Amino acid sequence: MPSIPNKPCSHVGCSNLNCTLHIRHSDKSYNRYRGTSHSRGYDNEWKKLRLSVLRQEPLCKMCLDEQRVTPATEVHHIIPIRTDPTKRLDRSNLMSLCKPCHSRITATSLDKALSSLQR
């Protein structure tokens, strides 16, 4: 029977392979802490605005800045909702991104937030 291939942990600073300490998304306590998408501000009003933004800006903003044409699939809050909830539905606070760019920008902002806490 084949064994599970070794995979490095995606948690910042963890060098374990096949780490079980940082499995968050399937962890019920993490999901309870995080709350539902609706409780985090992603309600029907957000869904309508998101579709509107993707129709107006169907291409990824970051890719366009780098001379690449990539369909946008996600809408990013430039100033996070947790930082300023009043900007949740502010059109000027939103930008269309592809999944890889959104993941990269989200991870970068999370890294910055974590490093500022460690100072």
Automatic annotation (TrEMBL):
One Pfam family here: HNH
MF term (GO), any: endonuclease activity
UniProt keyword terms in alphabetical order: Hydrolase, Nuclease
InterPro entries from the UniProt entry: HNH, HNH_nuc
HNH nuclease domain ranges (all copies): 48-103
GO cellular component, one term: cytosol
Family indicated by similarity: Belongs to the HNH nuclease family.
Protein name per its UniProtKB record: Putative HNH nuclease YajD
Organism (species): Terriglobus roseus
